[in-house]
Amino acid sequence: MERQVEKALKTAGDSANAFLWRRICRHLSGKLRIGIAGRDEGTVRRLIQQVAEQNKEVRWVQLLIDDLEDPGLGMQDAMLGAHALLWATPLAAALGSEERECLTKLHELGCPEQRAVFLADSHLLSRITDDPEREAKEVRRRVTNLIDDSWHVCDETELPGWITQKQKQLSQLASQRRRAVGRLLLAEARQTAEEAVFKADHDVVEVELLLTQKDAALTKARQRGERTAAHMLGTMRRHTEQLLVDLRAFLEALEQRLQAEIAEVDQAELVRQTLPHWLNHVVEHWMRQRLDQWTVDVMTELKEGRITEEDAQRAQLLIPALH
Known about the structure:
Blueprint: H1 2-11, H2 15-29, E1 33-37, H3 41-54, E2 59-62, H4 73-80, E3 84-90, H5 97-109, E4 114-120, H6 132-146, E5 151-154, H7 159-168, H8 170-264, H9 268-304, H10 309-322
């Protein structure tokens, strides 16, 4: 069982609890270990001194209740590795609300099933009452009513018998405790794994949603881009075709005009030298003006076609590159 639990914890990726499980198994395989806890530190210390002298074959482990809210490996090692648990409460002020909260927390954290509330410091009752015996019985009755059946109640006269009984049951207690702790650690590992799977599933859903939204946005942008590009190319094609028509008409008119003007010039050599430069200047000047007008006409039509300013700006950059 020990190897199976350790392997399962390691497989679940819970190396900390796998290490804790090995330590707990070593604790439970040795002599009887009894954890002692209490709200009053003085009461706990006195109890440990008393029982340690009388029961040297028992390993007494003090549990620090300040660690109950956020138990670390040390607290878990001490509590889960104990065969039994004693909660020490003074008879003069037995089991207040804070102590009951601690008992509930210990139960939630997996304290041993063999547990008892010990009514300590009976000698102090004589200082506060004329009938200590009657007061002790009344306190015991009240404590018994405040706790559930999983807790045993004992006083100083009953404690030695309770300890002896646990020593006789050591082998059985160790086996029961290993099963209980194993179930607890495996349940924690399973819960952690299920939470990780749930989070991973949630992340996958979010990613798929984002991808779907992104795909939709990309499709919309692509369709918009295709419409814009088609409109821009169509506009530029029409105006370019008109520019070519105008250029052809200009060149034809220029040719007719030149024929008449050249016929009036007697100096053929002068015409041969100056005509190319003059034609280049005239055509270049006409093309520059016409391209400027072409740009204005294209941009005007694009804006009238509800093209965005950004797309129109791109069109303005494209026009010179086409010519």
